Predict the 3D structure of the following.
Amino acid sequence: MVLPDVQTEGLGARSARDIIRNISYEIMPFRGVEDAVLEHVPTEVELTVTVTEAKGIGATVDLAARLTGHGYRTAPHLSARLVKDAAHARALLAQLTASGIDRVFLVGGDIPHPAGQFNAAADLLRVVAETDDFQRIGIGGYPEGHATIGDGDLNEALTEKAPLASHVITQICFDANTTVDWARRVHRLHPQLGVVVGVPAPVSRQKLMRISAGIGLGQSARFLRKQQNVIWRLMRPGGYRPDNLLRSFTPHLTASDINIRGFHLFTFNELQQTEAWRQTQLAKLSNR
C-alpha cells in the first residue's frame, strides 16, 4: 500500500507516514497479551483495551494500568452495562486517574442483563463528563447500523453523546464509501467530533477462532452472530490485509466536509503480525 501525502483539516499537514505511525491498536485482555504488547508493539502506538463479560471490567482496567506503567497511552473500554451505578463509575475513574490514564472508550455493552443502573454508554458518559481528568473520550460508531439497535435510536444516542466525546471509532465496515457517507453525516451534525475509522488488522483464521472461543460461551455466540460478515471476509483463502481498504479512504482525507482523524486496527491480539505489517508500510514510505 502506498498512501499519498494528505492534509487533514484541523490537524495541519499530515503525511502518509504520520497516518501509519499514528494508527492505534485494539487488544483483548487475554492471557499473554501483555507480554505480546511489550515484545512487539512500540510505545508510540496508542492502545485500547476491550472489556469482556467473562473477565469483567476489572481485567480491562488492570491491564490498561499495567501497560500505562510501561509507557503506553492506553484507553480502557468501559462497558456501561458492567457498571453498577454512579458511585461504581466514579471509583473506576479514580482508579484510572491514579494509574495515569487520561483517556477512555465508552460502550454500552451487549450483555443481556445490566449489572446495575446503566443501560447505555450515554449513562456512563455523563459521569465521565463530570471530571476534567480525561483528555480523550471515545465512543462507538456504526456506519452499517447495529444488529439490535434501530437507526433512529442510534442517531439519537449519537446526538446525546457527541457533545461530551472527543472522537468516535467506527465498527468494522468493508465498504469505504459507506463509512465515508456516514462520517460525512456525522461531521454535518457534530462537526467537533473526530472520526477514527476502525479496520481489521492482518489476522489469521486460527486466531479468529481462538478469540471467538476465548471470550466466553454466551459472549462468543453473540460475537459470531454480530460479526458474521466480518469473519467471513477475514477467513477467505489467502487471508486478509488492510491495504486496499485503507487506500480507499485516502481520496477523502482532505475533504472539508468530513473529519477523519485516523485509523484504528482491531488486532484480535495478532500483535506480531500487525506490527510487522505497520513497519512494512513505514519502510515503503521511507523508500518513496
